[in-house]
Write a structure and sequence with these properties.
Length: about 525
């Protein structure tokens, strides 16, 4: 596939100074893997084997903080999508199932809603292709969630919500969890925030929900022992839970019985934020969070929102990958994240941070993690054009999620900054971008063996006219890949979402890492 090269690379890659490389090496070395055992015995449908592949498997908690594509050759892959609005005709949505392999995939798609019988359909995804389904499936309900069970090969799934205030591509989880976290929430100017919880099991799930505002942590009585019925999707409007007009609003969900998948819907209506976003939550805290698209551009504002759900204060370092010479080098920020609180860093107020794009690494410095596996960090960017604003929110990539291969199941939208890639190592890398088509995964013309310096960042453009298909990013060392997508409807700004890393399955990772 040959395309013109003048559109592709929209920015010269940045690389780090020696001092910054040393800081990154220290940051990487301090993140020791912490293991937990998942002994949940609930089942979806009739069999645990259908939903979790194996029972009672050991998992690496930081890997479970975000979905990933298992690098092993498991013959069953399960995806749990956080849900789409399904009772408003001006909002449409779709489910994209991609198959980059050489064999066809058979899949079962189960649509869950509230107080309705699950709708089950069998589908086939031909080799080297994708299918797009209506994510609502004809169901009318506040929200509809999808569970996709694949047999035959590895596939990947994303959901897309098309909202008049901005479209959103949303990651789907590879497994339900007992804990879910959202660092950034916002109900200022009567903005709408909903926490969408899906219980894909035949037994009820019981959760305790806590939220943190600028003033205090709150655990409303009505949100303790909150029951999610079997095979159901339940949405909570946070303004109705005592969190109206809050500019800071972090949420923790803990399942005391069962497991769930949690997503967040936000419709921003003012106080510096405008637009629509939907995202999957973090299913674990992490000792590190990586952002490949920090930006100080024009009149944009950027904030790092850091949530510490634990009972201990945490010492943090914030490192910026921002240039190629000492003139662009700044000292890492050393800050404290108080227990049960949220802190916000306005990067525009940091002295010496140069204009342009950079990577960001937020790490805990504590040697004794105590009762916590870390923190949760999200990045908020408000992109301005005159008096108009477009708000994007993205969860960082957690520790251990750097990978040499990343996938975008629903592809990318044409723009000069469609892919943002950060080198997480102290070695120079080469990067290639491929698209899956009838001939398999083919390198896009002009995007083969691009040089990405050690600790550097690279902005890659994608031209108009590219077919809708899965995109794959391959690198010679571990990188982090984020997509910046057009919001549709001629709206300004971008929506932001990570690609999916290809990683060892948690049980393989544990066995390979064990002495």
């Amino acid at each position: 596939m040959k395309l013109g090269t003048n559109f592709f690379r929209s920015q010269t890659p940045s690389h780090m100074t020696v001092r910054q490389l040393v800081m990154v090496a220290i940051v990487v070395a301090t993140g020791a893997a912490l293991f937990v055992v998942d002994n949940n015995a609930n089942s979806y449908g009739n069999s645990n084997a259908n939903i979790d592949n194996v029972m009672n498997f050991a998992e690496v908690s930081t890997l479970s903080a975000m979905p990933f594509i298992s690098a092993n050759n498991s013959m069953t892959t399960n995806w749990f999508c956080p849900g789409v609005p399904a009772n408003d005709e001006i909002i449409s949505s779709s489910l994209v199932i991609s198959n980059a392999s050489e064999t066809d995939i058979s899949a079962t798609v189960t649509l869950l809603s509230f107080d309705q019988t699950p709708v089950v359909n069998a589908v086939s995804i031909p080799a080297r292709s994708h299918i797009t389904l209506d994510a609502r499936g004809g169901i009318t309900s506040p929200f509809v969630s999808a569970v996709v069970e694949m047999v035959g090969s590895q596939g990947s799934v994303e959901q897309i919500v098309r909202h008049p205030a901005g479209d959103a591509v949303v990651l789907c989880a590879t497994q339900p969890g007992t804990d879910w976290y959202f660092a950034d929430g916002f109900t200022g100017a009567d903005s709408i925030e909903q926490i969408v919880m899906t219980n894909p099991y035949v037994d009820a799930t019981v959760v305790d929900i806590t939220f943190v505002t600028a003033d205090a942590e709150r655990s409303p009585e009505q949100l303790q022992g909150f029951v999610l019925p079997a095979n159901s999707v339940v949405a909570l409007s946070m303004d109705q839970q005592g969190a109206r007009n809050e500019p800071i609003l972090a949420v923790s969900i803990h399942a005391s019985s069962g497991r769930l998948v949690a997503g967040r819907v936000q419709h921003y209506l003012g106080q510096g934020r405008l637009g629509f976003s939907m995202s999957l939550g973090a299913s674990a805290m992490s000792t590190q969070w990586w952002f490949s698209n920090g930006e100080k551009i024009g009149g944009n504002t950027e904030n790092l929102v850091i949530y510490n759900p634990s009972s201990r204060d945490r010492s943090l370092s914030v490192v910026f990958v921002n240039g190629s010479d000492s003139a662009n080098s700044i000292e890492p920020l050393l800050i404290t994240a108080p227990a049960h609180r949220v802190i916000t860093i306005d990067t525009g107020t940091i002295p010496g941070l140069p204009v342009g794009r950079y990577g960001i690494i937020v790490s805990t410095n504590d040697q004794d993690m105590g009762d916590s596996l870390g923190i949760v960090v999200e990045q908020v960017i408000n992109r301005r054009d005159g008096n108009t604003v477009g708000t994007s929110v993205v969860l960082g990539a957690p520790h251990n999620s750097g990978s040499t291969m990343w996938s975008a199941p629903s592809g990318v939208t044409a723009s000069e900054d469609a892919l943002q890639i950060m080198n997480t190592t102290s070695q120079e890398a080469t990067v290639s971008v491929l698209q899956v088509g009838p001939a398999g995964a083919v390198v896009l013309g002009g995007l083969e063996s691009l040089v990405l310096p050690a600790g550097g960042v690279l902005s890659i453009g994608v031209p108009p006219g590219l077919p809708d298909a899965q995109i794959i990013v391959q690198a010679s060392v571990a990188v982090v890949v984020q997509r910046l997508l057009l919001r549709g409807h001629d709206l300004i700004g971008r929506s932001a979402v990570l690609a999916l890393p290809h990683l060892p399955s948690p049980d393989n990772f544990l066995s390979e890492s064990a002495p």
